[in-house]
Amino acid sequence: MNRTFKGTSMLSRAHHFAVAALTSTVLSFPALAVQIEVVATGLAHPWAVAFVGEGQMLVTERAGRLRLVDANGSISGPLTGLPAIAAQRQGGLLDVVTDRDFARNRTIYFCYSRPDPTQAGFNSTALAAARLSDDAKALENVRDLFVQSPSYRGGFHFGCRIVQGPDGKLWMGLGDRYQLMQEAQNTANEIGKVVRINQDGSIPADNPFAGKSGASAAVWSYGHRNIQGATLDSEGRLWMTEHGPQGGDELNLIQPGLNYGWPVITYGENYGGGQIGDGITEAPGMQQPAVHWTPSIAPSGLAFVDSDRYGQAWKGNLMLGSLKFGNLVRVALEGDRVVDQEVLLPELRQRVRDVRLGPDGFLYILTDSPNGQLIRLKP
Ligand SMILES: [Ca+2]
């Protein structure tokens, strides 16, 4: 099934988005036409896709299932071996990535809403590692590497995006659990944080708060609301998207030890209106987003295009999905600055949950519905 859409300049859309740090740069390249190729259908609320070689992909379904999709789109039964998962509301089986050395060790990392075994009804986001069995039907040697603290009785804002650095260390973007938003400013816990861990679950000694009294050594950055997308660019910079409240969605360049402001500063407001806190958008010692979107687009999965598949038009750009508008947003970078953005696939109108760049250099998209699709974008 192929349909061709042309990208539509953000500036020509009826709804305008606030863009921080936007220069007067105009699109340097004509809009690129891409075809939508549906690779697989019938995925129930898929959340993340990871590539395991020979055209095969692992896809998580939020309800707590992990499936293998092969190159011709057939979907396996659920893999066995997953831990207990608190699949309710926004919680469930969420992100999955392969280890940089997957071809040799068959290691994957995934994150999920973990029931607290010591407190009934409480849960938190956990990052686990496992080995994909040789027949790809099971997970082996499943172990939690990191469990967000404290756990909480709730079903919202689990965050849960994983990125592995070139050195093998793992970042995970977390959420503020909604009702615990004030804790995003408290570096003593892992609510509303980005954390960084070693592949064995130990904490790197060079983390910004390691060895500091009263702080969680796992914390990499803080003041986040609900991180939903994460990627590295070709220079090794870490970018993440997060949901604001009503408005104030953000793309951030994540740097160690920095405060990204939530809930002290935000471009959003409370649901239904009304300011959050003092209603301020900037403050000393708090980072401004690279881009913010008001009204909200509900950004999701984030990918960096370092392949040549889409020519120079998209190379070096970030791509993120919009759950709310059911399209893609291309964010053009110059170094660590955002210089432009463009809405792509405005006719798609399916909630976009994940965006990834495959090892074949093509972009892959997961749509969030009871009959979700895995889509490949072909120029
Ligand atoms: Ca912020």
UniProtKB/TrEMBL annotation:
Gene3D superfamilies given in the database record: TolB, C-terminal domain
Keyword Signal in annotation: yes
Signal among keywords: yes
Domain Glucose/Sorbosone dehydrogenase: from-to ranges: 43-376
Keywords: Signal
Record InterPro entries: 6-blade_b-propeller_TolB-like, Glc/Sorbosone_DH, Quinoprot_gluc/sorb_DH_b-prop
Signal peptide: 1-33
Name recorded for this polypeptide: PQQ-dependent sugar dehydrogenase
Organism in which the protein naturally occurs: Orrella daihaiensis
Lineage: Bacteria, Pseudomonadati, Pseudomonadota, Betaproteobacteria, Burkholderiales
